[in-house]
Design a protein that fits this description.
By secondary structure, the chain is an alpha+beta fold. It is about 45% helix and about 15% strand. It contains 28 helices and 17 strands. Helix 5 (about 235-250) packs across helix 23, helix 9 packs across helix 20 and helix 13 runs antiparallel to helix 14 (about 410-420). The radius of gyration is 24 Å and the shape is globular. The mean pLDDT is about 90.
C-alpha cells in the first residue's frame, strides 16, 4: 500500500522537485518505507512506499518500463498478478522484480487502457507516456483506493489524498455549498465531489487520460444486476463458498506479517475461518471493544478466535476517545462523520503492532444485503405497495407534519419517518429513511443566506441518480446498486483507507473482490434477503464454518455509544468546537439553533447524537483546514 501524487508541467513551469517533496511528505504516513520522485519537462511524479511484495529496492517507485517510455506510480495490490505475469512470460516478456507494479507496467505497454479489464485488485495508478506526453490514471472498480485530482485551465494534478494537492499554488480552499449539504445528509461528501470547489474525485471504475492540457474521463466497469441466475440456491451457495475461499487465499500473499480484523460478526468471522483453514500457522486476529456491553462484541470475536486457535489480540476503548479524537480526525481532508472511524482507527493501530497487512470482512453488508436498513426498507416498500396512491400523496404528508410536533417521542418520530417515506416513490423513500439529518431539523438550522446559495439543490439527487442508473430486476437490487456506488466508496471505504493508512497498515477485503461482486449481482434478491433474514446466502455459505450464535445473532457492527459520548467522554471537546463563537458552523447554520440542539441533547429531552457528531466532525475539519485563513480574511 502506498501514496501517489503528481502534476503536469505544460502550463505549470514552476513545478519542481521541492514541490514534489512537499506533496510526498503530506502523504508520508501512507508509505514510510521508501519515497521517490520523477521530473521531466512534461510531468512530475512522486511515490511513498509501504513495502508488501518484493521488499528490496527493486520494488521502489516511480518504476520504468525497460525502454523507459513509461513511468508508473501505483497504490494498491493486484491479486491476480502472478497469473498475468505467467501469461506474459509465456509470450516472452521478462521481469526483474517480484512486484505487481512491474506486471501492470508491462501490460499497459501492450494493451493501453484495455489492461484494466485484466487487473483484479484495489488500486489507484498513474502512468506517464514519454512518447505521447500523456498521463493515464485509473481507480479500481469499487473504489477501495482514493484518487483525487484538479484540472484548471490546462493545469492538472492528482494525489491519493487532498492534503497532497493543497501545496499547489493554484489550488484555492473555496468550499462547495452543495457538498456541505451533502455531508450533513450522508456524513460524507459523495463522489465525484469533494468539499473543495477546485478538487474532484476520480469515480470508482473510471480511468482518466490527460494530454495536451485536456482531460478525458471514461467508465471502464460497472456492477451489472441485469443477468439474474436461474441456478438453485444450494448450487449458488456452494459456488459462493468456493469463490470467497479462493479470494481470501489470494489476499494471503505477502512478504510481510499478515493478520485479520475480527469483530465477531458474520463477515469478519467467515473470513478468519477461511484464512485459518488455508494457513499453516495460527492467524493473528485483532478486536476492539467498549465498556458499554451493548456496544461490545469482543466475546463473540473471542469465541471465533478460540474455535480457530488464532493468536488473538483485544483492545478496549475506555477513556481513549477525547485524548485521541483530534489526531484521528486529522487524517480526513474533508468532513467525514461515520462514528465507527474511532474503533477503526484503534483496531488498525492494534493490528499494526503485529502485522503490516490485515484482511477484513468489509463489503458483506452492501453486497449481500446485511444492514438493518434493508429490513426497514422492505417493510416500508411492502406498505407502499398496499396503500393507495391518493392516500400516500394527499394524506400522509399532512399526517407527517402533525406527527413532527411530537418528534421528541421516539415512537412518534418513527411514525413521522414512515409517513414521509410512504408518501414518496421507492427511491426517495430509501433516501429519506437513511438520511442522517431530518429535513425539519435542516430547515430549523440552515442560515437564510446559505439556503439562498443552495437554491433548489437537494442531496437526494445523489441517491436518486444512482437508483436510476441501476439495471436490477427489483427494488432490492436497485438499492444495493445504489449503496455499492455511493455509500460504500464514499463512506465505508474512505473510513477504512484513512484509518488504516494513518497507521501504515494495508487492509484487504475478499468479499469486495471483483469476482464476488459480479457473482453476487447475479444472485436473486430472494436469496440475499429471505423471509426477513438479511445476508441469507452468505450465512448459508459460512454455515459449515461458524456456529449459529455467530451467524444469526443481531448485527451490531462497529457501533459506538455516541449519545453517551457527547454527554460524558467527549462533551468538553465537542462543546469547545460546536459552541465556539463565529466558528465554521455559523457560516451555514443559525448559532441559536445549534445551541438549542446541544442543550436538548444534554438534558436528554431529545437525542441529537448523530447531528451533533456531524457538527463536531465538520468543525474539527474546518478549524484545521479553513479556520485561520477565514479569520485572517
Amino acid at each position: 500500500m502506498c501514496g501517489i501524487a503528481g502534476f503536469s508541467r505544460y502550463q505549470f513551469e514552476s513545478g519542481d522537485e521541492s514541490l514534489l517533496a512537499d506533496m510526498g511528505q503530506a502523504i508520508y504516513h501512507r508509505g514510510p518505507d521508501a519515497g521517490g520522485t520523477y521530473l521531466d519537462t512534461g510531468v512530475g511524479l512522486c511515490h511513498r512506499r509501504l513495502s508488501i511484495l518484493d521488499l528490496s529496492a527493486a520494488g521502489n517507485q516511480p518504476m520504468f518500463s525497460p525502454d523507459r517510455r513509461y513511468v508508473i506510480v501505483f497504490n494498491g495490490e493486484i491479486y491476480n498478478f502472478l497469473d498475468i505475469r505467467a501469461s506474459l512470460e509465456a509470450q516472452g516478456h521478462q521481469f526483474t522484480t517480484h512486484t505487481d507494479t512491474e506486471v501492470i507496467l508491462t501490460l499497459y505497454a501492450l494493451e493501453g487502457p484495455a489492461c484494466l479489464d485484466k487487473l483484479n485488485g484495489m488500486f489507484a495508478l498513474a502512468i506517464w507516456d514519454t512518447a505521447e506526453q500523456s498521463v493515464f490514471l485509473a481507480r479500481d472498480r469499487i473504489g477501495k483506493k482514493p484518487l483525487y485530482y484538479t484540472h484548471q485551465h490546462g493545469k492538472f494534478a492528482f494525489a491519493s489524498e487532498i492534503k497532497a494537492l493543497l501545496p499547489l499554488p493554484f489550488i484555492s480552499k473555496s468550499i462547495r455549498d452543495d457538498a456541505v449539504y451533502d455531508f450533513f445528509a450522508y456524513q460524507y461528501v459523495p463522489d465525484p465531489k469533494t468539499i473543495f470547489t477546485d478538487i474532484q474525485k476520480c469515480p470508482p471504475g473510471h480511468y482518466m487520460l490527460f494530454k495536451g492540457g485536456e482531460l478525458t474521463i471514461k467508465r471502464y466497469w460497472d456492477v451489472d444486476f441485469s443477468r439474474t441466475s436461474n441456478t438453485s440456491e444450494e448450487a449458488l451457495t456452494n459456488q459462493l463458498r468456493e469463490l470467497t475461499a479462493h479470494c481470501t487465499k489470494q489476499r494471503m500473499i505477502a512478504d510481510v506479517p499478515l493478520g485479520a480484523f475480527l469483530s465477531g460478526g458474520v463477515d469478519s468471522s467467515g473470513v478468519v475461518a477461511m484464512m485459518a483453514n488455508q494457513s499453516e500457522s495460527p492467524v493473528k486476529t485483532c478486536s476492539i471493544g467498549f465498556d458499554e456491553k451493548r456496544f461490545n462484541e469482543t466475546e463473540f470475536a473471542k469465541a471465533v478466535a478460540d474455535q480457530y486457535h488464532t493468536e488473538h489480540h483485544e483492545f478496549i476503548v475506555h477513556d481513549n476517545v477525547s485524548d485521541n479524537l483530534e489526531h484521528i480526525v486529522s487524517f480526513f481532508d474533508e468532513p467525514f462523520a461515520d462514528p465507527s472511524l474511532v474503533p477503526t482507527y484503534f483496531v488498525s493501530k492494534l493490528a499494526r503492532q503485529e502485522v503490516t497487512v490485515a484482511i477484513a470482512g468489509d463489503g458483506g453488508d452492501e453486497v449481500f444485503a446485511g444492514y438493518e436498513k434493508y429490513s426497514v426498507d422492505a417493510v416500508e416498500n411492502n406498505l407502499r405497495n398496499k396503500v393507495p396512491g391518493w392516500i400516500r400523496k394527499n394524506v400522509l404528508p399532512g399526517l407527517a407534519n402533525l406527527l413532527s410536533a411530537g418528534s421528541s417521542i421516539t415512537v412518534l418520530r418513527k411514525a413521522k419517518s414512515l409517513c414521509d417515506s410512504l408518501s414518496c416513490d421507492p427511491a426517495m423513500g430509501f433516501y429519506l429513511s437513511n438520511a442522517q439529518i431530518d429535513q425539519r431539523h435542516w430547515q430549523q438550522l440552515v442560515d437564510p443566506d446559505f439556503a439562498n446559495r443552495l437554491g433548489d439543490y437537494h442531496p437526494s439527487k445523489i441517491t436518486l441518480d444512482a437508483y436510476a442508473r441501476a439495471n436490477g430486476p427489483d427494488h432490492l437490487a436497485k438499492i444495493l446498486y445504489t449503496d455499492l456506488t455511493t455509500f460504500l466508496p464514499g463512506g465505508i471505504l474512505v473510513k477504512v483507507d484513512r484509518m488504516s493508512m494513518a497507521n501504515s497498515l494495508e487492509v484487504r477485503a475478499p468479499i469486495l473482490d471483483r469476482e464476488v461482486i459480479e457473482f453476487a449481482a447475479t444472485v436473486p434478491s430472494a436469496f440475499k434477503f429471505k423471509d426477513g433474514e438479511k445476508k441469507h446466502i452468505l450465512k448459508e455459505a459460512f454455515k459449515p464454518l461458524l456456529p449459529d450464535d455467530i451467524l444469526y445473532r443481531k448485527k451490531m457492527g462497529f457501533s459506538v455509544p455516541l449519545d453517551s459520548w457527547l454527554r460524558n467522554e467527549i462533551k468538553a471537546i465537542a462543546e469547545s468546537y460546536i459552541l465556539k463563537d463565529n466558528n465554521g458552523l455559523c457560516r451555514y447554520f443559525k448559532p441559536a439553533v445549534i445551541r438549542q440542539f446541544w442543550q436538548q441533547h444534554q438534558s436528554g429531552s431529545y437525542q441529537h447524537g448523530t447531528l451533533l457528531w456531524s457538527m463536531l466532525m465538520f468543525e474539527m475539519w474546518y478549524q484545521r483546514y479553513i479556520g485561520s485563513e477565514a479569520e485572517a480574511a
